[in-house]
Design a protein that fits this description.
It comes from Rohdeia mirabilis. InterPro entries: Carb-bd_dom_fam9. This protein is mostly beta strands and about 260 residues long. Helix content is about 0%, strand content about 35%. The chain is built from one helix and 14 strands, in the order αββββββββββββββ. The strands form two sheets. Strands 1, 2, 3, 4, 5, 6, 7, 8, 9, 10, 13 and 14 form a twelve-stranded mixed β-sheet that branches. It has a two-stranded antiparallel sheet with strand order 11-12.
């Protein structure tokens, strides 16, 4: 593991360790085979993985339940962590095409991983309905002076998106979109001196987020409604609009 640095800024534990509701827990089962990443979540390998609870507002019970359903599932093998997500969406929309753009300026799906469960040296991944990704690492949360390192990459990353509908076409009513991801464990090389797969029983900090914008149609195209903030829907509620409270995330446990 990364050596302890007594001079490094420490998390604000009073804020971090007071989630508004019990944090979620996901027991990640082993994949029966190497999964081909094509966005099709009906493959038999995924049958072994339970879905998460439906996502809630980032503030938890302080806000109404999201009107659109979102859920995710995970599997793992000795080389890769697999993530699948399913999102209900009547208006499929995405604009960003350049890797490491700020993807949450579009509707997106996000994965957050803290392998050391220390609230530092954690990883973030975002993807939109065009399949454009942003992968980054933070040495510590933004509020403690952390900055996103977008030069870092998930080496060997595989992703696929499938759409139930027509992207950027306001004349249609869409069903939603799915995401399938494979992340090699060897890529997660910041939190430890020896990156590699977890052992059965290991636990990582985990959360998922979905950003969804309110849209209107102008000139035959989707546009964000001016002045309206984005919706933030998550697996494990944070209590405040801030995903960068890693010690409030849920837990990912690797089953043997």
């Amino acid at each position: 593991m990364t050596p302890y640095d007594p001079l490094a800024p420490r998390p604000d534990y009073e804020r971090d360790l007071a989630p508004p509701q019990p944090a979620r827990h996901y027991l990640c089962r082993r994949a029966s085979e190497r999964i081909a990443i094509d966005g099709d979540l009906s493959k038999p390998a995924w049958d072994a993985a339970p879905w998460t609870d439906l996502f809630v507002d980032i503030e938890g019970d302080l806000r109404p339940r999201p009107p659109l359903a979102t859920r995710a599932k995970l599997l793992w093998d000795d080389e890769r962590l697999y993530v699948a997500a399913e999102m209900e969406e009547p208006d499929l929309w995405a604009t960003l095409t350049e890797r490491d753009s700020v993807i949450f300026h579009d509707d997106d799906f996000e994965v957050f991983l803290d392998p050391s469960c220390a609230g530092r040296n954690y990883y973030e991944f975002e993807i939109n309905a065009l399949g454009t990704v942003w992968d980054l690492v933070l040495r510590q949360p933004y509020r403690l002076g952390g900055q996103a390192d977008s030069v870092w990459r998930i080496a060997g990353l595989e992703t696929a998106v499938r759409l139930d509908g027509s992207l950027n076409d306001p004349t249609t009513r869409d069903g939603g979109w799915t995401v399938e991801i494979a992340m090699p464990f060897a890529a997660f090389d910041v939190h430890t001196d020896r990156p590699g797969p977890p052992r059965p029983g290991d636990r990582w900090g985990l959360n998922f987020s979905r950003v969804d914008w309110d849209l209107e149609v102008r000139g035959g195209a989707y546009r964000k409604i001016e002045g309206r903030p984005e919706h933030n829907w998550v697996w494990s509620p944070q209590g405040v609009v801030d995903m960068h409270l890693p010690l409030r995330w849920g837990t990912l446990e690797f089953e043997g």
